[in-house]
Amino acid sequence: MTSLKASLKTDLDNSSKFKNELKQLSDAIHDIINEGKAELSFIASKKCLDKIKQSETYMEEYAVQEESLLTFQADIDIEQFVSKLSGQGTIVLSYPDQAFTVQGKSEYDVGIPSDSFSC
């Protein structure tokens, strides 16, 4: 999970960087065009095309990753141990001067459909 989060953060950071650089170049081109400087407009346009190519290359390289499937594999030793338990423990109260009355008891089935026994 940590690896996937780190990879996603890197992709987001790089995407933001490319977006900001392209925005700055776009703004510069508009300013240059408004000033009527054709030669600077050509240079800025070329830089913008180079930056677009870099971002497209990055997207092609990193956007075609296979989907990752994250699953939980239970430890079979723990499963076997827990399945042999008759309960999860007992409640012990040590208040000798007080009386407690049980008002109710509930049992719940916590099994899953693939269980072969009642839980």
Using brief descriptors, characterize the structure shown.
single chain, 119 residues, 3 helices, elongated
Write a structural description:
- There is one protein chain.
- This protein is mainly alpha-helical.
- The protein has a domain at 2-63.
- The protein contains three helices and no strands.
- The radius of gyration is 32 Å and the shape is elongated.
Please write out the topology.
Blueprint: H1 2-35, H2 38-63, H3 76-84
Q: Which residue ranges are poorly predicted, with pLDDT under 50 across at least 5 consecutive positions?
A: none
Distance linking N and C termini: 31 Å
- Number-wise, the strands total 0
Our count of helices gives 3
Order of helices and strands: HHH
Query: In percent terms, what proportion of residues is strand?
Result: under 5%
Structural class: mainly alpha
Shape: elongated
Average pLDDT for all residues = 78
What summary fits the major beta sheet? none
Portion in helices: 55-70%
Q: Supply Rg.
A: 32 Å
Task: Give the structure's gist in a few sentences.
The chain is an all-alpha fold.
